[in-house]
């Protein structure tokens, strides 16, 4: 297959029905770069209440209403978006520390490791970067940075991997979540870098470069931008952001306004075909009319498909797209490159 290289603007992604209080982001209009980041840091710190280190908010913020829809714990290290989960945890109950096998109990994953900030508060109890995850896999990830794995030494039951980095510029051990949740992790990292920008130069972490503006060292900055672009904001993230705002009083600005990421960390990045799913294909491609035909395994299980343009705007949402065939009628899209996302699958296509 011919490989196409193209440039993507990392911009406005996802669903836009977040319950953002009127005026919450006042003062951000026309700001970019450091000025925008400084303003957002002020905004997301304002009203933030340290609720202590506990299990309470997971009951409202982390239930599975999106995949099996069984109200069990939504754990990004065990959730299988394409089928039955390998195990489930009920809420409340099931909490523990690290254990010897998957599926025994869950605990609290600090996506930014506690050792980074010496277990200080409010970082330790900021639930915007705290996720409930399987105890075994949490321990497996340990303090390793997130990254893209070459050869996996360990693989969780949902496909999350630990192993050596395949990223140019970092050769250490990294942990890679499944594609469905990579954007979630990226937007958490951009939140943390903004919320704690006045302290971040004192935090010791392989993913950081020691600065308050850029924050992330390469290749991690480019990786996070790519993850953000390829896995747009989901309803799960929006609902979690609302639940955490109700609980601790502040919001993740990059779930509410994903376009802020491009305005602060850069607007373009290169992405090639290898970055997209090999299990989803579109024909004809390039598209010369208003109909595309999508092929892939068991597409009927996906209740929704979304089409994004290259500034990340959701230009079309299709409910139950594959119940009566595999064709999708496009809404007279202008010429350009687009991304089709359904479930945990995504691919790109060109409209001519």
TrEMBL record:
Pfam families the record matches: Endonuclease_1, Por_Secre_tail
Ranges where the Secretion system C-terminal sorting domain occurs: 283-347
SUPFAM superfamilies, A to Z: His-Me finger endonucleases
Record-stated family: Belongs to the EndA/NucM nuclease family.
NCBIfam families attached to this UniProt entry: Por_Secre_tail
InterPro entries: Endonuclease-I (IPR007346), His-Me_finger_sf (IPR044925), Secre_tail (IPR026444)
Keywords noted in UniProt: Hydrolase, Nuclease, Signal
GO molecular function: hydrolase activity; nuclease activity
Originating organism: Epilithonimonas bovis DSM 19482
Protein name: Por secretion system C-terminal sorting domain-containing protein
